[in-house]
Every structure is written in structure tokens, then in C-alpha cells.
């Protein structure tokens, strides 16, 4: 069964990338295929779209789309975008890609998959991994120390009640292993004051689930690793577009573009430049692009999306 997913900021991303007939473009996060299908149309039959995803759900879904709708200029590649350069190396050389897009959000299908544990609104096995590599979600929840859990919830989820929640998890798992998303939600809910839950703008488990997912998939490390590779792959004038959904991701993208837009990155106390660094990017979004009210009404998850775009210099 083919699932549908509404991509966030689709028109803004497509416009920013300035794709032309015959271009080679990389969609580093295939997901539901929304960006990939748009890119496929924009680059035409003579162009190519290389779409990467580690999740078999996304890959199998797009294979079904290709069977029914074509998109013959799209090649799907299994892997984590943190390995982007090696993944696309058989298809394209250094400095030949016209555009690269990264949408760092989850697809609706991943959230709705009852065999996974991404969502706190449904009860499923506690599995937030995109692929079979790395640590398991159950290992994070059931084996990490209280101190490690606090660090994860604070750093990756920016959760004010990190200590209280971590302690509750440790106490609960002594009695029995935490195996489902529903059980984890129960533990989180029981650990929090009623007033705190009532004040929460989002579901009280949102930040913790986000943090555990990031830890499971090493998402921030992967983002930090892919950005230099993207720069290496882009041709002069090629563009990079990244859509992030929380401040930690946006900060990494913002700082990378800022650093690569400077001719010197020496510390301020150094009187004469000794780093030899030359600007390789032009920042095209001084402030991130956000969704308009119409899109947010149609797709509430767009509310937290931020788009940053940069162009590679000669």
C-alpha cells in the first residue's frame, strides 16, 4: 500500500534550489517522496534525482510509486545520509551536483506505523531506529544510567523535567523492562506534576520521545557529518537546502553556513589570520524561512519547520 505524506515548505524548497532541466539533485531524506517527486519533474528526463533513506518503509513505498507513476529519473539509495559522499560516489563525481535537500522531520507513515515506537499517541514496540545499525531504543531506555538519560533529555529534548523523568524510568525498569511506547508514556506522565502537564503546549511526552529518537539514531552527529560532504558534492552555484524541526538541528545548520561563509575563522584574539580559511558558501537566508499560516492550517507539523539555504561559491 502506498502511503501519502505532505512535505513541509515544498514550494519554498523547490524555489530556493533553482533547479533546471538536466540538473543532478540529491534528496538526502526520501521519506514519503514529496520532495523527490517535485525534483523529478523539475529536472526532467535528462536530469537525475538521487534519493537516500535508511528506512525500508520509505524505500519500499517509493518503489511502489515508481511502479505506478514512473519517475524513471529517480534512483533510490539505501543508507544514512551521514554517508552521503560514499553513497552517491558511483553515480556522480565531486563538484557536479546542482542541489541537495535535507528534510529532517519524520514522515506521517513512520509516526503511524504500529510496529514502531516513534509516536506517543499510539502504543507500539519501543523501536525508533531508522535502520539496523547503532544502538536500540530499548537499550537507551532500559540500560542507560540515570545520569545518561538526564543528559539525553536535557541536551536533545531540552526537557525541563529531565531529572524527574529519568529517575522515574530507572525506578520503573527495576520492576520490569520497558518494552512499549505506551508504557513509556505512562511512566513519563506519572512522573510529572499535573500543573506542568496542563501548561504544556504540546503533549507532555514530546520532548522525551524526540530526545530518545535522536539518541537512537545519532541524528545530530549525522547532520554535522553530512553538511561538509554536501558542500564537497555541490558544483559552483549549487545550492543546499535544509529543513529542520527543532533548535538543536537548526543551530548546527546555522553555524555551519555561518562558518563556511567567512574568509577567516580564527579566534578574535588572533591579530592576523593564520587559518587560511576561505569562504565556500553564500548564505541565502539571513533568517530561516518558515511556513505561512495557510500551510500550518493544512499541515500543523509545519509550525516548527525552519528552512535555511546556501549557495556554493566558485
UniProtKB/TrEMBL annotation:
Function in brief: Specifically methylates the N4 position of cytidine in position 1402 (C1402) of 16S rRNA.
Binding-site residues, S-adenosyl-L-methionine: 33-35, 53, 81, 103, 110
Sequence similarity: Belongs to the methyltransferase superfamily. RsmH family.
GO molecular function terms attached to this record: rRNA (cytosine-N4-)-methyltransferase activity
Protein name: Ribosomal RNA small subunit methyltransferase H
Annotated coiled-coil segments of the chain: none
GO-annotated biological processes: rRNA base methylation
Main location: cytoplasm
Gene: rsmH
The enzyme's E.C. designation: 2.1.1.199
Gene Ontology cellular component annotations, sorted alphabetically: cytoplasm
Subcellular location: Cytoplasm
Record field: catalytic activity: cytidine(1402) in 16S rRNA + S-adenosyl-L-methionine = N(4)-methylcytidine(1402) in 16S rRNA + S-adenosyl-L-homocysteine + H(+)
Record's keyword terms, sorted: Cytoplasm, Methyltransferase, rRNA processing, S-adenosyl-L-methionine, Transferase
Amino acid at each position: 500500500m502506498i502511503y501519502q505524506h505532505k512535505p513541509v515548505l515544498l514550494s519554498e524548497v523547490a524555489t530556493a534550489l533553482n533547479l533546471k532541466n538536466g540538473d543532478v539533485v540529491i534528496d538526502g531524506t526520501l521519506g514519503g517522496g514529496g520532495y523527490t517527486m517535485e525534483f523529478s519533474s523539475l529536472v526532467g528526463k535528462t536530469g537525475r534525482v538521487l534519493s537516500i533513506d535508511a528506512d525500508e518503509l520509505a524505500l519500499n513505498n517509493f518503489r511502489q510509486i515508481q511502479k505506478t507513476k514512473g519517475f524513471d529519473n529517480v534512483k533510490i539509495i539505501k543508507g544514512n545520509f551521514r554517508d552521503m559522499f560514499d553513497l552517491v560516489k558511483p553515480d556522480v563525481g565531486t563538484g557536479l551536483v546542482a542541489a541537495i535537500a535535507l528534510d529532517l522531520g519524520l514522515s506521517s507513515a513512520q509516526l503511524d506505523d504500529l510496529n514502531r515506537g516513534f509516536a506517543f499517541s499510539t502504543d507500539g514496540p519501543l523501536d525508533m531506529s531508522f535502520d539496523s545499525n547503532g544502538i536500540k531504543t530499548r537499550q537507551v531506555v532500559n540500560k542507560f544510567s540515570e545520569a545518561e538519560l538526564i543528559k539525553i533529555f536535557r541536551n536533545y529534548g531540552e526537557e525541563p523535567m529531565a531529572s524527574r523523568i529519568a529517575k522515574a524510568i530507572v525506578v520503573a525498569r527495576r520492576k520490569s523492562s520497558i518494552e512499549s511506547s505506551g508504557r513509556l508514556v505512562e511512566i513519563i506522565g506519572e512522573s510529572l506534576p499535573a500543573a506542568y502537564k496542563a501548561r504544556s503546549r504540546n503533549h507532555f511526552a514530546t520532548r522525551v520521545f524526540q530526545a530518545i529518537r535522536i539518541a537512537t539514531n545519532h541524528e545530530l552527529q549525522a547532520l554535522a557529518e553530512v553538511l561538509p560532504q554536501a558542500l564537497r558534492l555541490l558544483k559552483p552555484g549549487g545550492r543546499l537546502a535544509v529543513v529542520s524541526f527543532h533548535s538543536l538541528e537548526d543551530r548546527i545548520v546555522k553555524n555551519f553556513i555561518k562558518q563556511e561563509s567567512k574568509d577567516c575563522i580564527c579566534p578574535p584574539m588572533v591579530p592576523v589570520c593564520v587559518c587560511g580559511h576561505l569562504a565556500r558558501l553564500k548564505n541565502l537566508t539571513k533568517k530561516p524561512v518558515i511556513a505561512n499560516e495557510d500551510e500550518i492550517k493544512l499541515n500543523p507539523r509545519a509550525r516548527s519547520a525552519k528552512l535555511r539555504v546556501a549557495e556554493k561559491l566558485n
